Amino acid sequence: MSEPMLSFENVHTFYGKIEALKGVSLTVNRGEIVTLIGANGAGKTTLLMTLCGSPRAASGTIRFEGEDITQRETHLIMQGGIAVSPEGRRVFPGLSVLENLQMGGFFSDAERIEEDLERVFTLFPRLRERSAQRAGTMSGGEQQMLAIGRALMSRPRLLLLDEPSLGLAPLIIAQIFQIVQEIRDEGVTVFLVEQNAHRALALADRGYVIENGRIVMSDTGSALLANADIRKAYLGG
Amino acid sequence: MKSLKTACMAALLTAVLTLPLLGAHLVVNGLSTTLVVNLWPVGIAVLLVFVAQLLDLKARLGAITQALPTVSLSSASFSRHIRLWLAVVLVAALIFPFVASRGAVDVATYALTYVMLGLGLNIVVGFAGLLDLGYVAFYAVGAYSYALLSQYFGLSFWVCLPIGGLFAATFGILLGFPVLRLRGDYLAIVTLGFGEIIRLVLNNWDSLTHGPDGINGIARPTVFGLELNRRASPGGTTLHEFFGIPFDSLYAVIALYLIALLLVILTLFIINRLVRMPVGRAWEALREDEIACRSLGLNPTLIKLSAFALGACFAGLAGAFYASRLGTITPESFTFIESAVVLAIVVLGGMGSQIGVILAALLLTVLPELARSFSEYRMLIFGLVMVLMMIWRPQGLMPATRPRLELPTAEEAHQ
């Protein structure tokens, strides 16, 4: 049994006095797509942000590829093989698409940036068409593609996606989830935080359900999709 | 009807404001002082405001300024001709001191100092989006670095120039470390305080800086080792002796102008290179979204610090030049108003736009010089111009368009 790529062991996180994560444990194995589903305010984004070191976990251990990264500084965590497409996409609105992607490859040399650009443009042909356009003028779906593309520019081994379907049309969501699968097939492990439980569970190998800062259930994606409680709580009956 | 009401209100307000300013004068006659009331100017001002409001002049003028063509720097024809334009401007700038009057060259040198300051602050405020109200502190550090090093150790201008820049950058880092976790207004207030602290230290550290008397007799720059003074210092040679021509103080003025021009070109060159490099893009990215920057593994403190230090460095260079040009500096040369003027240059030019900043710097330094004859109203006009600009063209004279890298389109790529 090989060691998991990412593991949370009994992690607690506070915002001031409010305990947002109440002892979370989970694992992500290399090559998996793992999803975390839950309602608004359940602690999904907090969990992801704690992984990135902002806010920092009050107790517990977060390991990535065997190393304890719980106390590591955010920018060092993000340089070490993890990349995130943050909640609300957060592309640089005044910079062009190409410049956004180049920011993603900030620590690469020119040659590697060229290769990675080609890879991102192959995944998202739309971004190639729009490369000179200001990111802020693009549609939500295109911005989401850009946010994922930008995250891929650092050649992450683990890609974190925070609600990539937020506010997008069903057709675009389908397209993006298709691409997430392609990214996994290229060998990138994906940790997907979603409110859109149906699509996320259909795509994921395994899933965790978070409620009030606690993991309440975990199983394979298809098992969760078939679970009566989950269907009732998250899938609309 | 509504406009009539507004016009009446505006006229009343004008009357209240102008009555003490324009209506009343204190006339000193020997020992007695009398108050003379003259209501004519007040009446004219009230009438002007009333008519302007009634006709809604603001909106009309606004429409006119909106219709003014905006110069798009990214347009193809402009970028094609940009090298040509640059060459023309450069040649004109080089010929200028040899044909213009002595006074004009002097004013131009003064303006070029502000171009440097504007370009430096543009890095901090325009690119990195950090509001710095104490920029003059770094200008002062540069000026005093040169003045003191030259006075105590006899170091030459060209040795002190980089030292002044480095000193200022060091101060930028010293200030930056504790304060760069602050944002917006808070940062502005701390930098404002820092600017005052530097000035007060210079004012009170008598033993080193001679306090309010300042430092006099600061050596002028040399040109290829040749001095610009009438008489050579021991062991030195002057320019006019070297070429065997009679002394003319105009040579020094021209030489200083050319040095200032050189410094501005150097500043532009360095900044342009940096903006195209990842660090320059990181400044802009940080201004747009700090959280996204952190998510990409960038260290925001380090990036802000680099912008702060670099901006300070150029202020230091400008300061060293300023000290050598005037030959005398006092702490009073580095008051808050200097910071405000440089900030006004950056905002007026269009944040982040280098051509805009250069234009604004020339405008804000040359125009007041031209308006010397009615110098009492200079600050009034200055304020008026700022207010009008912010109403009608808040984006600045020439809003920034960033250098863009273009990829070939898909069809081109497949050919």
UniProtKB/TrEMBL annotation, chain A:
The protein's name: High-affinity branched-chain amino acid transport ATP-binding protein
Sequence similarity: Belongs to the ABC transporter superfamily.
InterPro entries attached to this UniProt entry: AAA+_ATPase (IPR003593), ABC_branched_ATPase_LivF/BraG (IPR030660), ABC_transporter-like_ATP-bd (IPR003439), ABC_transporter-like_CS (IPR017871), BCAA_Transport_ATP-bd_LivF (IPR052156), P-loop_NTPase (IPR027417)
Domain ABC transporter: 6-237
SUPFAM superfamilies named among the record's database cross-references: P-loop containing nucleoside triphosphate hydrolases
One record GO biological process: neutral amino acid transport
CDD domains to which the protein is assigned, alphabetical: ABC_TM1139_LivF_branched (cd03224)
Organism placement in taxonomy: Bacteria, Pseudomonadati, Pseudomonadota, Gammaproteobacteria, Candidatus Competibacteraceae
GO molecular function, one term: branched-chain amino acid transmembrane transporter activity
Keywords recorded for this protein, A-Z: Amino-acid transport, ATP-binding, Nucleotide-binding, Transport
Native source species: Plasticicumulans acidivorans
Automatic annotation (TrEMBL), chain B:
Compartmental location: Cell inner membrane
Keyword Cell membrane attached: yes
Membrane topology: Multi-pass membrane protein
Domain High-affinity branched-chain amino acid transport system permease LivHM N-terminal intervals: 2-96
GO-annotated molecular function: branched-chain amino acid transmembrane transporter activity
Annotated keywords: Cell membrane, Membrane, Transmembrane, Transmembrane helix
This protein's record includes keyword Repressor: no
Alphabetized PANTHER family for the sequence: HIGH-AFFINITY BRANCHED-CHAIN AMINO ACID TRANSPORT SYSTEM PERMEASE, HIGH-AFFINITY BRANCHED-CHAIN AMINO ACID TRANSPORT SYSTEM PERMEASE PROTEIN LIVM
Protein name, as recorded: Branched-chain amino acid transport system permease protein
